[in-house]
Amino acid sequence: MRKIMNKPEVLAPAGNLEKLKMAIRYGADAVYIGGQAYGLRSRAGNFSYDEMREGVAFAHSRGAKVYVAANMVTHEGDAEGAGDFFKTLKDIGVDAVIISDPAMITICFSAAPGLPIHLSTQASATNYKTLEFWKSVGLERVVLAREVGIEEIREMRRHTDIEIEAFVHGAMCIAYSGRCTLSNHMVNRDANRGGCAQSCRWKYDLFEMGGTAAKTLIPEGAEPFSMSAVDLSMLRHLPDMIEAGVNSLKIEGRMKSIHYVSTVSNVYRTAVDAYCDDPDHFTFDPAWEDEIWKVAQRDLSTGFYYHVPTEKEQLFGKPRKIPKYTFAAQVMSYNPETKIATLQQRNNFGVGEEVEFYGPGFAYFKQTVRDLWNEDGEPIDRAPNPMMTVTMTVDQPVEPYFLMRKK
Amino acid sequence: MNIIATAESEEQAEALLDAGVDTLYVGGHPFGLRLPRALALDQIGTIVQMAHARGKKVIVACNALMHNEQIEKLEMYLSQLAEMGADAITAGDPGAIFVLEKLTLPLPYIYDAETLVTSAEQIEFWLQRGATGAVAARELTLTELEKIQSKLDRPVEVLAYGPTCIHQSGRPLLTNYYHYADLDEQSDNDRGLYLRDPKNPDSRYPIFEDEDGTHIFSTEDLSLMGELQRLFDHGLHTWKLDGVLLHDERFVDIAALFVEAKKALESGTFESAGFSNRLRALQPQSRPLGTGFYLKNPDDVK
Fold it and tell me: What CA–CA distance (Å, rounded) separates B203 from B214?
C-alpha cells in the first residue's frame, strides 16, 4: 500500500496561549504566533516572552513546533532591538521566525545564528528562482504568495528543494501581499507595519471623467465597488497540495477564536492523515466540509490555485448568509459513572437547546441540553455568566478540552 | 545629479533627451510594471542608441513580480538587453536578481520593490548582492530619506514627480466588478477611471487593469519641486519623473522644467516658488499636486 512519507505539517494560527494549546490539542503540527513587536497583527493577542516559553514547552512536549512572525517591513529605527528579540526567541527554543524584511533577516542571522528563518508571504514569492535565491541566502522555508497556482507549485518543486509553505485556509489579502499602501495613504496607518485599516473593503464610487464632470459607472441600486475576497479553503483539494510537494499547509487567522482554531485544525489534521495514510483509497468525507462551514464567516473558494479569481470569488456588499455556530462551553472534566460533564461557560446557553460536542480526532455528537446545575449543585435553566462552571448530563463520553457549540 | 524620466515611445524619448533629462526609463511586458506604454525590444534598442549618441543612459524596467513562466523567459530578455547596451535594469523580484547573478552580464541592477524599500539596512542587503542603487518607497518621509541616503554610498532614487501606485492586486478587480454589476465596459488603461472614497469626496484614485493585475494610484501627483533644494543639500540627487498616467508633450514640458530646476540648483539660483507656479500651470486640472508622505513627520504614520 502506498503511503505519503513526507507528510506535510498542518500549521495553525495562535493569537494567544489558550489558542496555541487548543490548536495543538486539535492536531496542529505547528503554530505561528506573534511577539510583542515586529509582527503585522498589532491588535492580535501577542505573546510575552514568558507566554512563549510556556507555549514552546507545551508544543515541544507534544512534538509540535512554534514559529514567531516578525514580518514587519521596517523603516529607519524600527529594527532597533530586533537582535535581542531574535536572540531571546532562540534561547526560548522557538523553532523558526517568519520574516519578510531583508534587514530583519540580516539581524536575525547575526544575532541568533542557527535560528531557522522562513520567508513571510509578505515578500510575495511567486517563482522558483526566487525560492532558489532565498535558499542561497540561507533560509529554510518560503511561504508562497497567495497568487500562485497549483501547477506553479508543482513546477517550483521540480526546481528546488527548499521547504514550501502555502496557505490552505482563511481570509486573503486582496493585494499581492505587501504591495498595498491604501491604508497608509488613506488613514496614515502602515499596513506593512501592522496598521492595516482594511481600506480595500470600504465602498467606493467607480467613475470616469468626461471633461470636468465625473460620471459614475455604478448602476442604480447596485453595490458600490469594493475589494473584499471570499475566504480560501483547499480542504477538498488537499491531495493536490500534498502531491504538489507543499511541506506546510498554513491556516490563516491569528485574530480568530478558539472555536475557529480548534475546528479548522481538527478538520485539516483528519483530512491530511486520511490522505497520507492511504492516498490511493482516499475518499473525501463531506462531514469535514460541514465542520468547516460551522465556523466559516464568508463564502469559500480556492483562491488562485486553479484559476484567477472571478467576481464569484469576491464579495460585493454584505457577506452571503451562512450557518453560524457559537462557542458555548469547554469541557473541564467528565465522570463516566454519572455521565455528567463539568463545563466552563463561554456563551449563554440553557436547558432545551440543541448543542454539539466536538473533540480532537474528529470526535463529534449532537444532543439536547436536558439538565443543568450550577457550581453549588443547584438546578438552573440557563448558564448566563461568562466563565461560570456548570454541570450537565452528556449523551456520549467526553474528555477535557472537548468544546460545545450551538447554533 | 541624475534626472530619470519614463519614455513611452521613440518620439517621446527623443523629446525628453532634447529637454535634457539624464536617463530614460523604459520597458515592456511581461517584465516591466506600470509603464506609460509597453515597448518592444527593438524599440528599446532604438532608444538606447539614441540616448547613447547623446551621452545619456537608459534603464529598463524588470521590476515585475514574476511567475515561473515569466522568470523562464527573463534570461533571454536580459541577454538581449545587455547586447543592445542597456545601462541598467530595475529589479524587485529576488528571482530576477538570482537569474542576473548567474548570467554574469555587464548589466547592473537597481533594486526596486516599491513599497518594500524603506530603510538603509534593507538597501544595504541588496547592495551586498550586487545592486548599484535602489528606488525608495513612496511612503517614506524626507527625514527618513535623508537618513537613508546619509548611510549609503550609492544613490537612492526618489520620485520627484508623478503618481504613486498604492495597490497592486493579482485579481482583475475592474473586470470582476463589471461582471458582478452586469456592465458592458472595457478596462482600458487610458480610459481614465477613478475610485472615490465617499467619506472623502475630494479623493480620486486612478485605477486600471493590465496583464499584471489591477493597479490603484494616489489622488495626488507627487511633486517635490518645492523641496528640490532640500533634496539637493542632502545628497538625494537621483530623481524619477514618472509619466505613467500622463502622456505626450505635457510630460516632456514638465520634464524640461525639472531639468531647468536642476541647472538652477547647480548654479545656486534655484527659487522654488517660481518653479512651483510654472509646474502648476503645466499640470492637468484633473490631477492635484501634493507632497504625499515626504513632508509628514515619520511618527505620524504607524
Answer: 18
